[in-house]
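Morning!

This is the sequence you dropped in the shared folder:
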Amino acid sequence: MPRVLHTTARSPYARKVRIALLEKGLPFELATVDLTSPTADFLARSPLGKVPLLVDEDGTVVFDSTVMVEYLEDRYPAPSFLGGSSFSERLLHRELDELGDTIADQGVAAFLAKGRDDAAGEGRAVALAGRAATEIERRLADGRWPAAFGVGQAAVVSGLGYFEIRHGRALLDRHPALAAWAAKQAERPSVASTTPHA
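The structure's back. Tokens below.
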């Protein structure tokens, strides 16, 4: 059976996994999920009713984007997407993964708050995304950065891309070094081919 990644069009978490699959050269199909009326089959496989959901070729089911990347690394270790065997490289990737996911999380939170006319909640979410972006930019400047492209960078480009679609370029404009880095990553085939559209 084919490997299938269940997703929505703009999910930054699914994009991170798509980038991992592409970087590892693992073939896959996409299945778009309507989260407003998910199928019984999807809900039976996804315990939280969220995307992404990965169904591997042998039927193994994995949920949560970070768990998926760890699973792919364990099962298909070459090429590495998590920093190889160096604990320090793997730590850098995991920290960036958390920072990138934080930008995505807060992009979602700000979008939902805006829909509820909750200006305070939207402001809190945007501020927390800004803190994460500031930390990422600091790491770029001081060299606390993985040597090879992997899950950390994939999470950051995915989080930034989602935030820009939902909230415009203000976050990137406040972090010009991070914006320049993101623009360079956009040239990478796995990043370019997964770029979401407004």
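Headline: The first strand starts at residue 4 and ends at 7.

More detail when I'm at my desk.
O.
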